[in-house]
């Protein structure tokens, strides 16, 4: 494997280790010890520094001393990554696959295995998110109405909008 491919593989595996690993005892704010990743998961400090600095979606962050690392969003494990509650723009987008639409129009957008439903600021980003699951489809979300109904939104430090659930009544035809 080339060095570059190995780093991509390690960056992807880090998403699992920081968002979904039920074997590890995370602290309440979702931090994992850098030492654990070096000792037990084959990372070097230089690789972790490289991944955090250059990750395409800026998914990860260090604490100030670089002794701990966490994912900024996307967790299935139950941690509080101190998300910033933020007033959303009037419309956000959710990228999904066409085969999920009947169920989404029936039950709304569920967070499924993750802690939150993920919403994108642009149709372009939402299309990319949806295409991970099949033929992409972009739903518009009436965030203005959700916010005025008292529903909370959070903005992760890498620009992903999060909310707990989107009721079908807030889905827009775009
Ligand atoms: C769908 C990536 C049927 C939902 C992305 C989605 C994102 C339903 C799938 C982040 C449903 C869950 C999250 C319902 C929701 N019936 N299907 N009622 N409600 N769904 O991967 O939003 O690269 O957990 O539409 O860029 O695709 O990993 O969520 O298709 O930001 O950093 O259930 O993951 O970021 O899939 O992606 P996911 P997502 P990273």
UniProtKB/TrEMBL annotation:
Q: What EC identifiers does the entry list?
A: 2.7.1.-
Q: Which key words tag this protein in UniProt? A: NAD, Transferase
Q: Name one GO biological process term.
A: tRNA splicing, via endonucleolytic cleavage and ligation
Recorded GO MF terms = NAD+ poly-ADP-ribosyltransferase activity; tRNA 2'-phosphotransferase activity
Q: Which domain of life does this protein belong to?
A: Bacteria
Q: What's one Pfam family here?
A: PTS_2-RNA
Family membership: Belongs to the KptA/TPT1 family.
Purpose of the protein: Removes the 2'-phosphate from RNA via an intermediate in which the phosphate is ADP-ribosylated by NAD followed by a presumed transesterification to release the RNA and generate ADP-ribose 1''-2''-cyclic phosphate (APPR>P). May function as an ADP-ribosylase.
- Identify this protein by name: Probable RNA 2'-phosphotransferase
Provide the species name: Prevotella lacticifex
**Gene name per UniProt:** kptA
